[in-house]
């Protein structure tokens, strides 16, 4: 019996020692790099340390925040609310102040436009008539991700006093975030996707790049924009739930196409794509 107890004690002692040996070197190496001004390399080391069983996630998050110029916050540095807003249905939306702009911090989920006209559901699509869709084709996804809308609906659903953002609005947003070190990841100013993406909903995807949205999503959303990966809808098919946030712009590219701003699980930047107006995407509104 004594022998068994000693064996168990030995295993526990070995495990504890092994865990301690895992986390500490990553912390010390990351601190060394950070003190040398090599924050991009330090963040990579801190991120690797998070995979240790004994990792102190709070401490590592503090170090990453320091590297990004965000102080010692232990989670995302959420932007200040600029009030709330209701749509025609009576749904209330949270907002966030980013720079000089006031944005919705949630996706639109109305079933009518700003004048009370119904937006039809279905598996069809149109470049001229209003449609709405459920993320991944399932109504159960609407409470978390809201609806997807084709462009004809997207330009008509923002509450009065608000509007679907134009490319000028989007540029103002991304330029501001890119100019602030606490919202950029690593040394590249364009790496702001992680600061805009929500902390929840994303499929976790660990890799060697700490700036990827899916790499430790619990560290996303420093800006408070809270982009949700609702995917998109194309005719009767749905794509990208938990992998893509596809948000409409009011600016047309052509008669049949408009711009999408896309955040993906495996990219550190916000992509701008041209999309057919019949596609279903998420809608965020910005205050007039």
3D structure, described in words:
This protein has about 290 residues and is α+β, with helices and mostly antiparallel strands. It has 2 domains: about 1-65; about 85-285, no CATH class. It contains 7 helices and 13 strands. The protein has helices at about 1-35, 40-50, 55-65, 140-145, 150-155, 165-180, 195, and strands at about 85, 90-100, 100-105, 120, 130-135, 150, 160-165, 230-235, 235-240, 245-250, 255-265, 270-275, 285. It is elongated and about 60 Å long.
Q: Tell me the radius of gyration.
A: 22 Å
Strand content range: 15-25%
- Describe the main β-sheet briefly: 3 strands, antiparallel
Compute the separation of the termini in Å. Answer: 76 Å
Task: Kindly give the count of domains.
Answer: 2
Structural class: alpha+beta
Report mean pLDDT, rounded to a whole number: 85
Q: Report the principal-axis shape.
A: elongated
Level of helix content?
A: 25-40%
Which ranges are low-confidence, i.e. pLDDT below 50, for 5 or more consecutive residues?
1-20, 70-78
Number of helices: 7
What's the assembly state of these chains?
single chain
The ordered H/E elements are HHHEEEEEHEHEHHEEEEEE
What is the β-strand count? Answer: 13
Strand order within the widest beta sheet: 1-2-3
